[in-house]
Amino acid sequence: MNSKIQKFHLQKPAYIYLRQSSMNQVRHNQESTERQYALRDKAIALGWPANMIHILDGDLGLSGSHAALRKDFQSLVALVSMSKAGAVFALEASRLSRSCTDWHRLLELCTFTSTLIIDEDGCYNPSDFNDQLLLGIKGTMSQAELHFLRVRLQGGKLNKAKKGELRRPLPVGYVYDDEDKIVFDPDMQVQHALRFLFDSFRLTGSAYGVVHKFSKEGLDFPKRSYGGVWKGKLIWGRLTENRVLGVLKNPTYAGAYVHGRYQSIKEIGSDGTFRSTAKRMPMSSWTVLINDHHEGYITWREYIDNQKNIESNRTNGEETILKGPAREGLALLQGLLLCGCCGRRLTVRYKGNGGIYPTYECNWKRREGLSTGSCMHLRSDLIDTPVINRVLEVIKPKQIEAAVKALEEIERREEAVDNQWRMQIERAEYEANLAQRRYEAVDPDNRLVAGTLEKRWNEALLKFEEVRHKFDEHKQKNRISATENQKAQILKLAHNLPKLWKAHSTSAKDRKRILRLIIKDITVEKLAEPKQIVLHIRWQGGAIEDIPVEIPAKYSDQIRYGDQIIARVRELSQNYTDAQIANLFNEEGLKSAKSKRFTISMIKWIRYKHGILGPVLKRADELTVNQVMDRFTVSRYVVYHWIERKIITARRLNHGSPYWISIDPQKEKELTELVKNSTKIQDQSNQHSKTKQ
To answer: Are 432 and 464 spatial neighbours (Cβ–Cβ below 8 Å)?
Structure first.
């Protein structure tokens, strides 16, 4: 027995860790698998009972570069940290980990818990300095080995890719021939579908238009399966917008061979694990680009134009996160407005008869199910009018003159930058001439030195050309200079712009383009108190300005009677009738909420709505119909009969108003005798009493 194995080690379980980097190795490298399982016999020979030996083989087929996906390795680390392992068996250090971080963490835990590490070469106690040093070197070599393997493989791939010979899955429409060359798919239907896609994009100018075109024509689009039982088969189905963009952005269709379009980017997740994601790289970062490598469906020039067209159509890009392309429509601030609640872009909805009433809406919360209503909903004219007035006010001759002066200042700054570029070119030219003189001064027979100097001369010339090329690109991209004639036209624009803006010949799209030249974006903030909107305008120059806009009252509030009218009706109703109040208002020239003359029904509605009592015009000695009924114990019909026959005196203010009856003592005596002597009245009164009961 090894002297490093103590009795307390044998009292704890021994764990045998198995790992191979890929499932292909698991299937075909059976000898390595057998050797790892054979470590169980070695553990028994070293003194561990068979029932205390556990095999961890759940990580077979997984790479050892990270511990994130290796569940058995994580379990092993947890067992060691809890001092539940006597020894860890592995064929070699690379089986446990190829990452120094994971390896040294395991060593540190083994040191604290006195856990042994046993491989095919021997037994190691991490608590011992010499063993710890040796294990550290083994872990470093294991990680270095992985690095060397990766470098060799990637170098071979890159070398083959630079020659355009590295095979990779081809997009639909291309296949490899017998000589491994990229050729058109022999299926003419596939070729026709792709050519129709590119023709449709030339016609519509958008991926959505291509999808609509295919849908309208009832055409399917092919895609090739790259795995499973359908590997290599063509599958036809509905064309989607993502598929269109994938085809348009693939340079293979332009006859180019590209390597390095996507790059693996490592990120740290929220749980602390490493993740690798594929990221699309810009064209300037492509590792290999070989034009005219094979026959293309489109030219390279058309491919570049398509990319520019796609980028200009984006509504979520860095430069076009708001604007997007200017389109027709009456909403002039389309694409410039941001919601002050959620920060999303306000969209346009056209409503009314034929869509003549545009509105701005933010429906993000409702669309995402976070709310049942929109963040805000505003009429376009409510916002467009103050912004347009401010823009026309801002663009004045003096301000245009200031803009021209600023333009001249920018030109002066550009000239200073150009001087720096010229000096850099001059230095590069000097170094090239110096390298040339050194090469010419060397003895031609000394070929070793001459070859080195010639190489340096070539490198200096290439650097010189590169600097000149970059300077030319700089001038093309950043030149903002204007001629004197252009400056004069800018000054003239300040006088003609208001007239030009209101002209019928100026389309809504042109007005939108003018606004986008001046305004970067506008954040719309809706305030509850006071009831108004604040427009936070960010101008193209970087200045910020706030414009408050009063929110008009709702139509129901606009036609609602004001507090002054209601108070006046309440005051007059104590002594005047509704007709008298209406006549008084009309004589004073007052108008209703809808700018009409007051009527009796309007005054009645005001009194009903606000609970205003009418005037008390009944005299103290007058009786109502109900009071007469109760006094003589008769029905209502008898009282109305007396009023119609003028047996009793009654008055009313107007038709429909109640009767007020005057009865003196003599008339009261007559009516009492009349009721007493009339059997018909008594019968009606008795019947009325029973019904009432």
So the answer is: yes
For the stretch 61-99, pLDDT in tens is: 887 777 777 888 888 889 888 888 989 998 887 788 877
In this structure, the strands spanning 221-224 and 234-237 are antiparallel
Give the separation between CA 287 and CA 299, rounded to whole angstroms. 21
What is the pLDDT at residue 253? 93
Read off the DSSP letter of residue 592.
-
- The answer to whether residue 492 scores a pLDDT higher than 70 is no
CB distance 331 to 380 below 8 Å: yes
DSSP code string of 84-130: --SEEE-SSHHHH-S-HHHHHHHHHHHHHHT-EEE-SS-EE-TTSHH
Neighbouring-strand partners of residue 288: 259
**The predicted structure's pLDDT at residue 318:** 46
- β-bridge mates for residue 89, sequence order: 16, 118
**How do residues 578-587 score in pLDDT, each as one tens digit?**
888 888 888 8
Q: Identify the three-state secondary structure at position 166.
A: coil
Distance CA 417, CA 507 (A): 40
Q: Which two tokens stand for residue 414?
A: 């550009």
Residue 197's nearest CA partner among 176, 173, 178, 174 is 173
Q: Which of 3, 21, 595, 662 is catalytic?
A: 21
280, β-bridge pairs: 262
Instruction: Report residue 692 as tokens.
Output: 């009432």
DSSP state, residue 344:
P
467 neighbors 459 (Cβ within 8 angstroms): no
219 φ, ψ to 5°? Answer: -100, 145
Mean pLDDT of the chain: 79
Q: Concatenate the DSSP letters of all residues of 606-634 into one string.
A: HHHHTT--------TTEE-HHHHHHHHT-
- How far is CA 380 from each of CA 351, 355, 514, 540, rounded to the nearest angstrom? 11, 12, 18, 22
Query: From CA 86, how far away is CA 90, in angstroms rounded?
Result: 14
Are 256 and 290 spatial neighbours (Cβ–Cβ below 8 Å)? yes
Please give the C-alpha separations between residue 582 and each of 564, 571, 589, 601, in angstroms, as whole numbers: 15, 13, 11, 9
What is the pLDDT, as a whole number, of residue 488?
Answer: 66
Residues 596-630 pLDDT 10s: 888 888 888 888 888 887 766 667 777 888 888 88
As a whole number of Å, the end-to-end CA separation of the chain is 118
Facing residues of 55 across strands?
16
Cα–Cα dist 614/581, whole Å: 11
Tell me what the mean pLDDT of segment 523-546 comes to.
82
Cα gap 459→464, rounded to integer Å = 9
Question: Which pLDDT does position 249 carry in this prediction?
Answer: 92
* 395-435: pLDDT as tens digits: 766 656 655 665 666 666 566 556 666 766 777 788 888 88
SS3 assignment, position 280: strand
* Residue 497 tokens, joined: 């712009």
Exposed, middle or buried: residue 682 (CB in 10 Å: 0-12, 13-18, 19+)? middle
Please give the pLDDT value at position 320.
42
Dmax (CA) for the chain in angstroms is 163
* Rounded Cα distance, 280 and 530, in Å: 49
**Rounded (to 5) percent helix, strand, coil in the chain:** 50, 15, 35
Instruction: State yes or no: is 21 an active-site residue.
Output: yes
pLDDT band at 15, cuts 50/70/90? very high
The mean pLDDT of 501-513, rounded to a whole number, is 76
